[in-house]
Design a protein that fits this description.
This protein has about 240 residues and is of the alpha/beta class. The chain is built from ten helices and five strands. It has a single domain, classed as Rossmann fold. It binds adenosine-5'-diphosphate and magnesium ion (MG). Adenosine-5'-diphosphate (ADP) binds next to helix 3, helix 8 and helix 10.
Length: about 240
C-alpha cells in the first residue's frame, strides 16, 4: 500500500461523496429534489408516479424524470446502456455521467430554480451502487466524475427502496422475456448493489430514507410519503 494512498474501505472511499453534501452551491435552489433509488424491480417507477400523484393532489408543481433517459439525448444514451452490446465498465460509467450532465443542466436544475418539486428515478447513487458496488470501480473516482457531471447537485432527499434482489427481479421477470444488460447480471451483482445503496444511506442518514420495498405498493407509497412530507415546507411550491 503506497504511503500516499492511505484511504481504503468503503467508508473512506465515500468521503468525496460526503464532502460534496455540505449544502448546495449558491444560488440556493427554491424547489425540492427527491430521488428514488433501489435495484431493478424494487418499485422505483411505480413509486415515482404514486408520489407525483400524491404531491399534485396536495397542490405541488411536480416534475417527474429519470436517469438515464430523462432528455432526448439521454434516451439515446439509455438505449446504448441498457440494450447495446458489451461495454467496458469505465465506458458505462462515463455514459451515465454524460446522461446526467445533460439531464441536470437542462431538466433538474431549471425546475428546481423555478421552485418545482423534482421526483427523479435514479441519480448519482445508482452510479455508485452499480458501477462501484456492482462493477468494482473505485467509489471516490466515480463520485468525482458524477459530482462533476451533476455540478455538485445533491438531492434534498434520497429514498432507497430496499428489497431482496431475488424478489425484485422476480417482479420484473413476470412481465418481460428480455431483461436489459444490467438486469441480466447474476444475483451476487444485485446483492452488492443493494449493500452499496444501504451503505450510502447509512453514511448520511439526514439525507436518506430507507423504505421496506417488499411491502405492497400502497404500503411502500405510504412510507415514501412519510419520508417526503417533512421536506415539503421548505419549497415555494407548497399549496
Ligand atoms: N410493492 C410492490 N409489490 C409488488 N409488486 C410491485 C411493487 N412495486 C412494484 N411492483 C411491480 O413490480 C414490477 C417492477 O416495478 P417497477 O416500479 O417497474 O420497478 P423499478 O422501476 O424499480 O424497476 C412492476 O410490474 C410493478 O407493478
Ligand atoms: Mg423503473
Amino acid at each position: 500500500m503506497p504511503a500516499t494512498n492511505p484511504r481504503s474501505g468503503l467508508t473512506d472511499s465515500l468521503t468525496p461523496v460526503l464532502d460534496a453534501t455540505e449544502g448546495r452551491e449558491p444560488p440556493e435552489l427554491a424547489g425540492l429534489f427527491v430521488v428514488l433509488e433501489g435495484g431493478d424491480g424494487s418499485g422505483k417507477s411505480t413509486q415515482v408516479s404514486e408520489l407525483a400523484r400524491w404531491l399534485r393532489a396536495d397542490g405541488h408543481d411536480v416534475v417527474t424524470t429519470r436517469e438515464p433517459g430523462g432528455t432526448a439525448a439521454g434516451a439515446s444514451i439509455r438505449e446504448v446502456l441498457l440494450h447495446g452490446g458489451d461495454l467496458a465498465p469505465r465506458a458505462e460509467a462515463l455514459l451515465y455521467a454524460a446522461d446526467r450532465a445533460h439531464h441536470v443542466a437542462s431538466v433538474v436544475t431549471p425546475a428546481l430554480a423555478a421552485g418545482r418539486v423534482v421526483v427523479c428515478d435514479r441519480y448519482v447513487d445508482s452510479t455508485l451502487a452499480y458501477q462501484g458496488g456492482g462493477r468494482g470501480l473505485e467509489a471516490g473516482e466515480l463520485a468525482a466524475i458524477s459530482g462533476w457531471a451533476a455540478q455538485g447537485l445533491v438531492p434534498d432527499l434520497t429514498v432507497v427502496l430496499d428489497v431482496d434482489p431475488a424478489l425484485a427481479l422476480a417482479r420484473t421477470d413476470r412481465l418481460r422475456e428480455a431483461p436489459d444488460r444490467l438486469e441480466r447480471e447474476p444475483l451476487a451483482f444485485h446483492a452488492a448493489v443493494r449493500e452499496r445503496f444501504l451503505a450510502l444511506a447509512a453514511a448520511a442518514p439526514a439525507r436518506y430514507a430507507v423504505v421496506d420495498a417488499a411491502a405492497g405498493i400502497d404500503d411502500v407509497a405510504q412510507q415514501v410519503r412519510v419520508a417526503v412530507e417533512p421536506r415539503l415546507a421548505a419549497t415555494t411550491g407548497a399549496a
